[in-house]
């Protein structure tokens, strides 16, 4: 099969596969099988995170990786070689995932492609009767997440999202401790991604590595040009908005997911406002005219209002070593280095998720009350559900993944709309003073500005941007006060890489 086949052929195939779903593949094979019977799978996208997927499945006796799918043969070869070394069996490498969807023997796919491919890959897989483990964020925009939720329901598929903290006893027990009143009433959580991200190189024209199929890599995103605008093909797309979602959509879905979980928020927020910028790389490169190839914010603060509850998510991509945020960094035990986690603020104490497998509860004086440790196996949780067909046993189903990915998309829409609205610290303060939130907005703003100045950012020359306050209808999944925001809610696709909307999956 080639990518040249007609749209009609492809739709026919998809419809046939969908109609046949209960008759073949995941459901028929996985149900009632003994744990020793092998489930056949395909790992799709295996340069970085895909290696973790390969490691997880190739270590199991009850799963066989039958396919490695990657549009880069070098990454494909690396994946195949790892599987062969670990299991003695070499999987088939293909570069077009649609070959896997056509193979009725495959029970599930596990995908770690770039973000812009997640939803279409998942929808196609489920239409073809496969179960799907999909990396976070499960979508590149909000309607894509809704499409995945609808597809899982319509085709009766098991769909796990790669927010693996949900399977970790440390976080599960900490969330239960809070739900049982361990730190009193909790209405506010702050997620942090204080993680150094250096410039990805100057914006420019760079060759696409010869072996890569850039048409397939681009997929649902625009086929911009036969050149890359960033030096590195892999990974750095995270910081280009056509493909990635910045750290709001990279690290963010882990922490905002835990924040929502801990606050018991199984829905979208009522509003969002975001400020920040892609700042500091001129100072980093010692060149006042330097333009980095990334176009997502490296410094971003998003305030989400849920009525009686609130989440704030802070991204910092510049150095966080000398951070003067004593009230925050002491909870992470160190001022130096990255600080990634969630702080819950209760009436009787705090609970901090410090690491994926470590949470600590404090009283209001900062004394440790209780510690929670322990990791789990998110892949195993998925496999168990594939066999039992009980999607309610998943730690992270499509709906939870959708809500958490949506927080990134909401933040970025406010940021993108306000990108050219450059504001002085005083103007930013004037806006944030009017924003109702459970956070002390001005304290957070001042900490953020201090962090930028500490990193050599001249705020007069490179001011921050202030996004609009966007009101969101959590049920209808549309903005209620901005046509401009609704216009960028959903991407335009490039045929034939079209992810259907939820009502058309
Ligand atoms: N859960 C976690 O903790 C975690 C950690 C890291 C990354 N991730 C997620 O994993 C995903 C991949 O991230 P990464 O850092 O490994 O990116 P990467 O760019 O290093 O790797 C992506 C791979 O996908 C391949 N690919 C691209 N389009 C493809 C297609 N259409 N079909 C098959 N293969 C395709 C690329 O060639 C590449 O080998 C991202 O969505 C990221 O958010 C999750």
Instruction: Extract low-pLDDT stretches.
Output: 1-32
Looking at CATH, the homologous superfamily of the domain at 167-504 is Dihydrodipicolinate Reductase, domain 2
Structural class computed from helices and strand pairing: alpha/beta
Mean pLDDT, as a whole number? Answer: 92
Give the proportion of residues in helices.
25-40%
Number of helices: 18
C-alpha Rg (nearest Å): 23 Å
What is the tally of beta strands? 20
How much beta, percentage-wise?
A: 15-25%
Question: Can you tell me the CATH class of the domain at 167-504?
Answer: Alpha Beta
Instruction: Determine the N-to-C terminus distance.
Output: 23 Å
Distinct bound molecules? nicotinamide-adenine-dinucleotide
Sum up the overall morphology in one term.
globular
């Amino acid at each position: 099969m080639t990518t040249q086949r007609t749209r009609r052929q492809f739709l026919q195939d998809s419809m046939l596969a969908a109609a046949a779903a209960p008759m073949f593949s995941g459901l028929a094979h996985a149900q009632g099988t003994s744990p020793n019977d092998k489930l056949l799978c395909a790992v799709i996208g295996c340069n970085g995170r895909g290696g973790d997927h390969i490691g997880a499945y190739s270590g199991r006796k009850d799963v066989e990786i039958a396919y490695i799918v990657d549009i880069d043969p070098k990454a494909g070869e690396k994946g195949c070689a790892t599987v062969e070394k670990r299991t003695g069996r070499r999987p088939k490498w293909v570069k077009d995932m649609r070959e896997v969807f056509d193979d009725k023997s495959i029970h599930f796919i596990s995908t770690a492609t770039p973000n812009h491919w997640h939803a279409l890959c998942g929808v196609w897989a489920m239409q073809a009767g496969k179960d799907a483990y999909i990396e976070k964020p499960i979508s590149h925009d909000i309607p894509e997440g809704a499409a995945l939720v609808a597809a899982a329901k319509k085709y009766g598929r098991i769909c796990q999202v790669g927010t693996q903290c949900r399977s970790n006893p440390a976080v599960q027990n900490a969330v239960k401790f809070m739900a049982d009143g361990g730190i009193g009433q909790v209405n506010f959580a702050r997620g942090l991604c204080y993680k150094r991200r250096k410039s990805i190189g100057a914006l420019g024209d760079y060759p696409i590595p010869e072996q890569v199929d850039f048409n397939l890599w681009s997929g649902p995103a625009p086929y911009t040009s036969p050149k890359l605008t960033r030096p590195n093909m892999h990974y750095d797309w995270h910081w280009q908005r056509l493909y990635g979602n910045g750290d709001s959509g990279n690290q963010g879905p882990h922490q905002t997911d835990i924040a929502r979980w801990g606050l018991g928020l199984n829905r979208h927020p009522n509003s969002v406002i975001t400020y920040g910028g892609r700042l500091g790389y001129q100072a980093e490169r010692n060149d006042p005219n330097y333009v980095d190839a990334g176009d997502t914010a490296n410094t971003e603060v998003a305030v989400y209002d849920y009525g009686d509850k609130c989440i704030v998510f802070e991204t910092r991509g510049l150095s966080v070593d000398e951070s003067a945020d004593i009230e925050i960094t002491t909870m992470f035990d160190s001022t130096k280095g990255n600080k990634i986690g969630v702080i819950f603020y209760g009436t009787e104490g705090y609970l901090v998720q410090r690491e994926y497998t470590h949470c600590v509860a404090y009283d209001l004086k900062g004394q440790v009350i209780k510690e929670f440790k322990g990791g789990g196996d998110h892949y195993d949780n998925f496999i168990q559900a594939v066999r039992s067909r009980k999607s309610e046993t998943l730690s992270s189903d499509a709906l939870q993944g959708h809500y958490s990915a949506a927080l990134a998309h909401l933040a970025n829409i406010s940021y993108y709309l306000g990108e050219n609205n450059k504001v002085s610290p005083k103007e930013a303060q004037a806006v944030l003073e009017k924003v109702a939130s459970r956070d002390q907005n001005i304290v957070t703003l001042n900490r953020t500005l201090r962090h930028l100045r500490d990193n050599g950012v001249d705020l007069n020359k490179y001011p921050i941007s202030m996004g609009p306050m966007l009101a969101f209808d959590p049920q209808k999944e549309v903005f209620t006060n901005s046509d401009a925001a609704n216009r960028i809610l959903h991407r335009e696709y490039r045929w034939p890489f079209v992810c259907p909307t939820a009502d058309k999956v």
